[in-house]
Amino acid sequence: MRRSPSPRVIREFRRIRGVVLDVDGILTNGLISYGVDDEEIKSFSLRDGHGLVLLRRAGVKIALLSGRDSMAVRRRMQELGIEDGHLGVREKLPIFHSILSKWKLFSEEVVFVGDDVVDLPAMRIAGLSITVPEAPWFVRREADWVTRLPGGNGAVREIADWILSGRSDGISEARCHQDGDPG
Fold it and tell me: What phi and psi values does residue 64 have, to the nearest 5 degrees?
């Protein structure tokens, strides 16, 4: 398994203007706990959240596209300032197309990050498709890159750092820390 992106993928990161993420298994570790009154409880990485904030500050558009709807995800979107959330979606490809249209971007300018069979149709048309090490082998095989870090534990920050590293309009380290940890 490749530890860092291939030279081709690194070059493609420079073209990225939008990131569409699955939630469970990407922004979370894929586990669901239930609390009082069957409330879903999910854990989110602060590092991943900070990476998404840095991408937004650099002008990269962010959308979440999840098969499940959850109050925890809605709250996390609000905390991170993500307005483009599509939750409870069974067929992701039509929504992915509508996101591209809304953003006025070509598929080549957008990364899709997913980890299961329902994500493959969108992953196949995105400019770059990325998955996590825990994804099934058939998803890892089709992805342009498999992150080193696991879903829900730094994978999204890893992606954000690679996208920002090759951009001249990326966020400087000083600006990253001026507001504290927004993640």
Answer: -105, 140
Stated pTM of the model = 0.89
CATH match for 12-178 among 2.60.120.260, 3.30.300.160, 3.40.50.1000, 1.10.10.10 = 3.40.50.1000
pLDDT in tens, 133-159: 999 999 999 999 999 999 999 999 999
Sheet strand arrangement including 84-86: 84-86, 61-65, 18-21, 110-113, 128-131, 145-146
- Secondary structure class of 129 (helix, strand, coil): strand
pLDDT 10s digits, 42-81: 999 999 999 999 999 999 999 999 999 999 999 999 999 9
Sign of the four-CA dihedral 14, 58, 22, 88: negative
Half-sphere exposure of 96 (CA within 13 A, CB side): 30
DSSP 65: E
